[in-house]
Amino acid sequence: MGHVHIIRDFPSPHEGRSRTVRIYTPDAYDSAPAGHRFPVLYMNDGQNVFAHPESAFYETWCANLTLEQLVRSGSIEPWLIVAVDSTSNRLAEYSPWDEPRSNIRAQGEPYVHFLLDTLKPYIDRVYRTRQGAEWTGVMGSSLGGLMALYLGRRYPELFGRIGGLSPSVMWGWNRLFSEWTSHSRTWSRIYLDAGAEETIDPVGYTMYYGEATRDFYHHLKRLGYADHELHLVLEPGGQHHELAWQRRLPFAMHWLLR
To answer: Which Pfam families does its entry note (predicted)?
Structure first.
């Protein structure tokens, strides 16, 4: 069952701090021929991603277990998963722009440059990665899902597979809608999901995840994204919680990574 390698003091010069990075190498990584290269999925909120003794204390996505099950069934090929822990400053570091309703000032750009300028070059240098947007994905939930979509929009030449589970597309007065104004005209596959009636109020206003995710899906459809590029799941009864994302992850990974 693969390996989770944890680097606890990975320097992030753009942020002036260090981060914890968790790198999952699948079963096939060690047994594959030396020249074989693997696609890479980057995930936010890394402490919640893997079934591992040193992950978060409560429920996680169990992404490593799901990946290996899909590989064994022949649904997808093996992927590396690179998961970056969030910090106590999560709301700001996952904010591409200000959220005035909650008095949160955006600090997302330093995190973006950490991924692009420091982490991704390290992963490509140390591991046998497959290059190109078609073989590089980014995924997250809630504000981590917003950040995944933001990365895919800003850097489509780097991230071709984008997964937003319960993404906070309403953040900053629906700013993502006005930022995403055209089809990227590059190879892309975008997966969106949420609970059909999912809502939370963590920062002073009610966030309607089911409604907003559905609206964003239709926004992308109007921009010309076809069915083979874009998929939406609205789960009846789905909540804003790791167990819901864990439950939807097998289909999400199958659709996004196949």
So the answer is: Esterase
102: tokens are: 């909650």
Task: At 78, give phi and psi (nearest 5°).
Answer: -65, 140
The tokens describing 138, both together, are 């980014």
pLDDT tens digits, one per residue of 227-250: 999 999 999 999 999 999 999 999
Provide the whole-model pTM. 0.97
Each domain of the chain, given as residue ranges in start order, spans 3-257
Residue 23, amino acid:
I
Task: Compute the distance between CA of residue 5 and CA of residue 24 in angstroms, rounded to an integer.
Answer: 6
Token output for 104: 């949160």
Class of 3-257 in CATH: alpha beta
The per-type count for the chain, helices as H runs and strands as E runs, is: 9, 10
- Per the CB < 8 A criterion, the answer to whether 196 and 238 are in contact is yes
156: alpha, beta or left? (left if phi > 0; alpha if psi -120 to 50): alpha
